[in-house]
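Action item from last meeting closed. Structure (281 res):
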């Protein structure tokens, strides 16, 4: 049976198998989508074995592989190369190609938020943050403040969007980063089930500015995170990670299985709500 999968370390928390299997069933496609825990040390040998399997269609890559896997690919799509990270590996003839569908996922989450000419704040400097920077440039934000552990080590982020006014700040400077932001995005796993919690200093800074900004948390398990709890006002100011997860999965599904998933899928929302212990919304 043909199959695709998601790889990461950890990966047990991933809802990608539920999403892709739901679409496979809905469309009557004979295939499967799995989750495989692969450590960084195992990645080269694991990928070589998968290449040799004719039933393997490709994989999504999550933490910590989005940047590491680049050196193991035959080709990288131009947008993904500019971002410097991939989250989707697929076959094109006899080549293994890297793509980045995280930008589509971020678009699903933030396209309804006015960002042109506005200030955007971002937490994190990893692969998902790189996609968020590319998206910010596409939306023509006036300025982007990025909160990272070490601004000196994060200087390479500037190359993703050289013409964007980008400021790198430490966690201790988060209050400055969030001030005046139209949206604040968490691109880290902080607050995810099984991961480290969001630091109190960051939550305190969010508490000072969350009332006026749209808060988008890429964490999707749990759905109701301490980060999102600080959004005040209408529900539209809170964007949960499932929106991005499903958004990025759509392109990946097409690349793997050659079909478009259902456009408005209430049954999928119900299934994911059950798995995450939340309401379908």
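Sequence:
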């Amino acid at each position: 049976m043909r199959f695709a999968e998601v790889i990461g370390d950890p990966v047990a928390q991933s809802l990608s198998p539920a999403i892709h299997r739901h679409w496979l069933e809905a469309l009557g496609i004979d295939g499967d989508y799995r989750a495989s825990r692969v450590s960084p040390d195992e990645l080269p040998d694991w990928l070589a074995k998968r290449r040799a399997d004719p039933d393997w269609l490709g994989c999504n890559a999550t933490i910590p592989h989005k940047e590491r896997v680049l050196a193991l690919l035959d080709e990288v799509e131009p947008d993904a190369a500019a971002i410097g990270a991939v989250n989707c590996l697929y076959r094109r003839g006899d080549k293994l190609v890297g793509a980045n569908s995280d930008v589509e996922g971020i678009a699903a989450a933030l396209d309804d938020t006015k960002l042109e000419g506005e200030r955007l704040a971002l937490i994190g400097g990893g692969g998902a943050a790189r996609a968020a920077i590319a998206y910010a440039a596409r939306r023509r934000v006036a300025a982007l403040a990025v909160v990272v552990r070490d601004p000196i080590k994060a200087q390479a982020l500037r190359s993703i969007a050289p013409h964007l006014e980008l400021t790198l700040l430490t966690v201790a400077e988060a209050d400055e980063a969030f001030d005046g932001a139209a949206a604040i995005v968490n691109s880290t796993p902080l607050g995810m089930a099984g991961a480290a919690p969001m630091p109190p200093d960051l939550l305190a800074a969010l508490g000072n500015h969350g009332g006026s900004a749209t808060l988008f948390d890429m964490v999707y398990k749990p759905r109701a995170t301490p980060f999102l709890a600080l959004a005040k006002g209408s529900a539209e100011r809170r964007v949960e990670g499932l929106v991005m997860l499903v958004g990025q999965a759509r392109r990946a599904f097409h690349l793997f299985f050659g079909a478009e998933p259902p456009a408005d899928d209430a049954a999928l929302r119900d299934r994911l709500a059950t798995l995450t212990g939340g309401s379908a919304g």
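Note appended to the action item: The radius of gyration is 18 Å.
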